[in-house]
Amino acid sequence: MAGGGDPLRALLRAANALLQQQRYRAALAVIKGFRNGAVYGAKIRAPHALVMTFLFKSGSLREKLKAIAKATYAHSRNLACFVFTYKGLMALQSWLQGKKIPFHSFFAACIGGWLVFGENNPINSQIIMYLLSRILFGLSRLAVEKGYVTQPKQDPFPLVAALIWGIVLWLFEYHRQTLQPSLQSSMTYLYDDSNVWHDLSDFLIYNKRTASK
């Protein structure tokens, strides 16, 4: 019985020795990328889904928890599969050409994006819109760094903020259907629901009257 832990310790030593092998590093990085994608996706989506579900969705507690679990699983799975695909294609291209070049990243990400995030659904749509806003900022900064655009004499952020808020509220007021559903829900809560009340209870305490009232 005393030696019952020896096989386990031997297995752990073998696994650790394998992880140190340089020739397997690219393949192992792909596997760990899958792991990190799954964990990060769950960490990002779970709290967001929790808040949005309990704020804006109706239904029983069981239905809400099921919706949260479904959204978290979808985000975690998609991100894990994308990282796995991206890093796998990066390793393959580097092996085929003997070196890593910038086009490899673009090509691998395009393939991964098509395969994993190509379906138009609420989870993928939200992720793509999140990335779109980031790359617009990134490309703007890159254009300045490369000299394609002159460095502004004043910080352009106040103007950008004004235009973004102006456009999004105009869309909400007059072309609401063009906005993503979760954004519509948030703005309805902020700008439409704040126009309606009956007494102090749904003016300060609750957003809307319950059916019993």
From TrEMBL:
Q: Which superkingdom, per the lineage?
A: Eukaryota
One GO cellular component assignment for this chain's record is: peroxisomal membrane
Record organism: Urocolius indicus
Q: Which PANTHER family match?
A: PEROXISOMAL MEMBRANE PROTEIN 4
Q: What is this protein called?
A: PXMP4 protein
Q: Which InterPro entries match?
A: Pmp4
Kindly give the Pfam families that the UniProt entry links to this protein: Tim17 (PF02466)
